[in-house]
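To: structure desk
From: M.T.
Subject: fold request, one chain
Message: Could you run this one when you get a chance? Sequence is below, nothing fancy, just the single chain.
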Amino acid sequence: MTVYMANNMDISQEEKIKLAQACDWESVIVASSNIPRFQFFMPSGEEVSFCAHAAIGAAVVYAKYNHVYNLEYLAGLKDLVRQRAVVSGEKQNEAALEMNVHYTEDVLDAKNEIIKDLLKQIGLSEHDLNLSSPICNASIARNKTLIPINSMEK
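Reply: Done. Structure tokens follow.
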């Protein structure tokens, strides 16, 4: 993960994408203000709403440069959300994130044709499902479809 500190710099979105594409891993651009803003990017240049690894790294770097060890920051794409990080440890190299995630998604019906097609594409059938738990989408940054199965033996 790479942390770019953009203190008082006006960096265009195109430049941010180029910086992200120069990395082989996630990156975060930190814009300082009263409440710093963390912008998270994938190596493809895609901006995402959140990346935990990059947030932890950015919190540690920000704390070391600004001597702020209990910080609030803004993250998100369209709707910025206040998050909190606490940096501690003997060398201020440990960070804990407080997550304020407000993400809900409807439970997906196992009989839905799209779900049946997805199961087929990944080599599963309805008989492989453990329906005591729901099929659902979950996300902090990028959607993941959670499919409970009976066994890993397949």
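Reply (cont.): Residues 49 and 78 are 8 Å apart (CA to CA). Let me know if you need anything else for the meeting.
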